[in-house]
Amino acid sequence: PNPLVEANLAELRREVVTRKADLGVSFDGDADRCVVIDELGNPIGCDLLLAWMAKGFLADAPGAAVIYDLRSSRAVPEAIKAAGGVPVESRVGHVFMKAKLAERGGIVGGELSGHFYFRDMFNADSGARALVAVLNERLRERKPLSKAIAPLRRYHQSGEINFENEDKLGALKALRKAHPRAKTAELDGLSLDAGEWWCNVRMSNTEPLLRLNLEAKERSTVDRAVQEVSRLLGRRVAH
User: Fold this and answer.
1) Distance (Å, rounded) from C-alpha 134 to C-alpha 2?
2) Is 225 in contact with 195 (CB distance < 8 Å)?
3) 147, 151, 163: which is closest to 204 by C-alpha?
4) Angle of helix 46-60 relative to helix 75-82, nearest 10 degrees?
5) What CATH number is attached to the domain comprising 85?
6) Mean local confidence (pLDDT), 96-101
């Protein structure tokens, strides 16, 4: 089952709390992805999990590059820098992540999808290796996982929202035009920093869909910005 689907985690979340476990882990069918549940039964975003587990790798290799998915929370590059690493942004997808890891000699990398990549595994992704990294960091820090992750939860995220639109390029142009003073980048779709909030909008390669991820310091700002941006991106769909 897809570990990113909330319904697929329901039983695991209950068991973690019932059994008073330190954590829970859900793999996908071939175990190249994993999602971790803290001791309170709450899923940990894979971007925050990368930022947290990277500390252990950087303790052994100060100054190493850590590759992160450009949809990740802004807390991720901030935490990597604080741990003595070099944050490197990548396009979404295992081809791009592996290439960036090799190009920069990165020690570890990760995506919101639950794929984590490791230099000590020839830059391959492995859910099992990710679990080992999580357990090692949990032992190193000696504190409940919820408390270890808490400092990274400094921003609020929209989650990925899908919009149906036959004119995807036109929608991106409209978004850029609506925010002429915003900082923009086109590494993968359109990334836009409007100051109070920032977002990435990517185009599906196979469907008439746009995928929005938006973040801000305040939940109210996220809600307002999502409403504003949604009007430009098309019809919101569950996908």
Assistant:
1) 20
2) no
3) 163
4) 10
5) 3.40.120.10
6) 97
User: What is the distance between the alpha carbons of residues 123 and 105, in angstroms, rounded to a whole number?
Assistant: 9
Return the CATH number at 189: 3.30.310.50
Residue 54 and residue 79 in contact, taking contact as beta carbons nearer than 8 Å: yes
The Cα–Cα gap between 190 and 181 comes to 14
Q: What's the rounded Cα separation, in Å, for the pair 27 and 2?
A: 8
Determine the Cα–Cα distance for residues 88 and 67; give it in Å rounded to an integer.
5
pLDDT in tens, 41-57: 999 999 999 999 999 99
- Spatial distance between the Cα atoms of 67 and 76, rounded to a whole number of angstroms: 10
Residue written as tokens 């039983």?
11
Q: What is the pLDDT of residue 239?
A: 67
Last residue of a domain, one of 122, 152, 182: 152
Region of residue 199 (phi > 0: left; psi between -120 and 50: alpha; otherwise: beta): beta
Question: Is 35:4 a contact under the CB 8 Å cutoff?
Answer: yes
How many CA atoms lie less than 13 Å away from 177 in the CB half-sphere? Answer: 8
pTM above 0.85, yes or no: yes
Separation between Cα atoms, residue 101 and residue 118, nearest integer Å: 8
Considering the domain architecture, whether residues 199 and 232 belong to the same structural domain is answered as: yes
